[in-house]
Design a protein that fits this description.
The chain is mainly alpha-helical. It has eleven helices and no strands. The longest helix is centred in the middle third of the chain and has 30 residues. It is globular. The model has no long low-confidence stretch (mean pLDDT 83).
């Protein structure tokens, strides 16, 4: 028992040391802060271009998907290059399993409260039905795809924007607020999604700064998205459309 306790203690101390080194590395980033701000703005610009300038002028189906992926691919290329320049490991970014359950514990209570709020809103909305039938008709593979899509969004939001925001403002409210504002901006002009992603962005950024695990955040992201679909009528969600396609 004592040997196991000592091993667990050493592991916890090693994790704390790694997190501390990561935080120091972010604070001591040699380039000026304006360059870090430009990184965030470049990423946001790429997604905005996809939502407002590329997709509206392309056809549907494969053509739309291909055209929309070009600026998104450029954004991911920027993130991968930036990660290499900053010397960030995948573990530091949040691709790890050792703190998965710890991250889920931090997410659990806020998610339950959000679920209660969504169910209450669904009941109070007049002459509108729950979207549960839409969820029931959804093929199983879509749920798996949803987790993957949630992971990509959280990789962008936390593994890049959050970490760059910490380079600018340090850990805490200001950097968390930047993440939430960016996430909400990218879901405009859909009012329900803008509010939902701002609130979700606050939660996920807060949890990430304490326990960086992208897998837990991706699972939370996917679950809350389906809960939103199941409780809020599609007449209000507009099919989760954002950007120019919202209209």
């Amino acid at each position: 028992m004592s040997d196991n306790f000592r091993d667990l203690k050493k592991e916890a101390e090693a994790m704390k040391g790694e997190d501390a080194r990561s935080e120091v590395a972010m604070k001591n980033y040699p380039s000026s802060k304006w360059l870090v701000a430009c990184e965030i703005m470049s990423l946001v610009s790429s997604v905005v271009v996809a939502e407002w300038a590329v997709m509206p002028f392309t056809g549907r189906g494969a053509e739309l998907m291909f055209a929309g992926m070009l600026p998104v691919a450029a954004a991911f290329a920027l993130m991968l290059f930036s990660r290499k320049v900053h010397g960030e490991t995948w573990r530091e970014v949040g691709i790890r399993f050792d703190n998965f359950w710890r991250a889920l514990r931090l997410l659990l209570i806020p998610m339950l409260l959000a679920a209660l709020l969504l169910f209450a809103l669904g009941l109070l909305l007049p002459k509108l039905e729950y979207g549960v039938p839409r969820v029931r008709k959804t093929p199983a593979w879509i749920f798996v795809w949803g987790i993957g899509w949630g992971f990509l969004q959280q990789f962008m939001l936390q593994g890049f924007v959050n970490r760059r925001a910490q380079m600018l403002f340090g850990k805490g409210f200001r950097s968390v607020l930047v993440v939430a504002l960016v996430f909400a901006l990218l879901h405009m002009p859909n009012p329900w999604l803008t509010v939902a992603t701002f609130c979700g962005g606050l939660l996920w950024a807060f949890v990430y700064q304490r326990t960086p695990n992208l897998f837990a955040l991706a699972l939370s992201h996917s679950l809350m998205t389906w809960l939103l679909i199941a409780t809020i009528p599609d007449a209000l969600l507009h099919g989760l459309r954002v950007g120019y396609n919202y209209f």
